[in-house]
Design brief:
The protein is of the alpha/beta class. The chain is 30% helix and 25% strand. It folds into three domains: 2-259, 4-Layer Sandwich (Purple Acid Phosphatase, chain A, domain 2); 266-319; 331-384, no CATH class. A hairpin with a 2-residue loop joins β15 and β16 (251-259).
């Protein structure tokens, strides 16, 4: 039997306001093609189908179309909800669409009710564990913290397996100890309490994990597929894709990585604006999605527009002047003892890139008088309110 493990589609997400819809379509096209080419029996989607609990109409349509196409390509589909999904919304009609070969598992009370797949070697029991928020599920799955409720879910799964002669697969959306995170996941841990041990999933032939966005192997039969696209610049070095899982009569037979299409590379540039605009070796990054850090001693004017004249896909721009020593004091400490006019003129100096209040970047006398008049007008308006 061949299973395709994927997760964290985050349909509806943008990358710093860049529309990722076409890139998500390209991934889903590739997923359907893999199902056909590799004769996949079932696609496993381990949570975070959507990027938010109330998804856009376009995201819902994209998900609906994906399910139809995957079934038409010959695969059954098993889906669980993640921490970004609304379990109740994603699970609407789940018991009706079971008959169509799409199995949506979002109810904690159903964790030990498997989807049964069959091949020439017998049954494969596929269990879907949705994201389990401990407080929300304590009446159904009592336990302390994430480890407790997941442990209870797995205890029920093992009890069900004990009465079957079947190979076993579990989908789970969780933060398993040892997995490497990136900036684009919502942290479900509080002081480490959200971590669960890999041993929670002992005794299962394959565990298809979701939540962390990097494809990674914690052990041979315990893996994160990661997200199909990079959703933050911290994922620029990731190779995105899915796991193609093969089961034989005895259990896990092998796991192969299936790369996802790359819509556009993510990379970071650092340097003075004139150098970035003229350096010939940067030609290979002109079509990348970029995060740029400018190190000019004075903040350049119209920096974003000037950068986009060469690099049209700059998404993030930061200014960190070379040699500047960051002020680690709190805002309260920085403004303590200063008048309103001093605070405002210091802000103007900062925006203009000056190094001290005596710099040319600070206000001249005419600008100071204008700022002082504005502050006085605000004080009078506040006093008469």
């Amino acid at each position: 039997m061949r299973l395709l493990h994927t997760s964290d589609w985050h349909l509806g997400r943008t990358l710093h306001r860049a529309d990722l819809g076409p890139a998500q379509d390209a991934f889903l096209d590739a997923l359907v093609e893999t199902v056909r080419a590799e004769r996949v029996d079932a696609v496993l989607v381990s949570g975070d189908v959507y990027d938010r609990a109330v998804p856009s109409v376009e995201a819902v349509q994209r998900y609906d179309e994906a399910l139809v196409r995957l079934r038409s390509a010959g695969a059954r589909v098993v889906v669980t909800s993640g921490n970004h999904d609304s379990a109740s919304r994603l699970g609407v009609g789940a018991r009706l669409v079971d008959a169509a070969g799409v199995h949506v598992r979002t109810r904690p009370q159903d964790v030990a009710v498997p989807v049964l797949l069959s091949d020439e070697h017998g049954d494969v029991a596929v269990y879907g564990i949705p994201y389990l928020e401990p407080e929300a599920v304590r009446d159904v799955l009592p336990g302390v913290g994430h480890a407790g409720v997941l442990g209870e879910a797995m205890s029920r799964i093992r009890a069900d397996l004990a009465g079957r002669s079947a190979r076993s697969v579990v989908l789970a959306h969780a933060w398993v100890t040892g997995g490497e995170a990136s900036d684009s996941e919502r942290d479900i841990r509080v002081g480490g309490v959200g971590d669960v041990s890999a041993s929670v999933f002992d005794g299962v032939d394959y565990t298809a994990l979701g939540h962390l966005h990097g494809a990674q192997k914690l052990r041979e039969g315990l893996r994160y597929s990661g997200s199909p696209l990079a959703y933050s610049f911290s994922e620029a070095g990731h190779t995105k894709g899915s796991w193609l899982v093969s089961l034989n009569a005895a259990g896990l037979d092998g796991v192969d990585f299936v790369p996802a299409p790359v819509p556009r590379r993510l990379s970071t540039l650092t340097g003075d604006l004139p150098d970035l605009l003229s350096e010939p070796t940067l030609a290979t990054q002109e079509d990348d999605w970029l995060s740029v850090v400018l190190t000019d001693p004075v903040r350049p004017e119209d920096a974003m527009a000037r950068l986009r004249s060469r690099f049209p896909h700059v998404l993030v721009l930061d200014w960190q002047p070379a040699g500047a020593v960051p002020d680690e004091r709190t805002y309260g400490a920085r403004v303590a003892g200063r008048t309103d006019l001093e605070v405002v003129t210091e802000f103007v100096r900062h925006v203009r890139g000056g190094g001290s209040t005596s710099d040319a970047g600070c206000c001249d006398d005419e600008e100071r008088d204008l700022l002082d008049s504005a502050l006085e007008a605000v004080r009078l308006a506040a006093a008469s309110a």
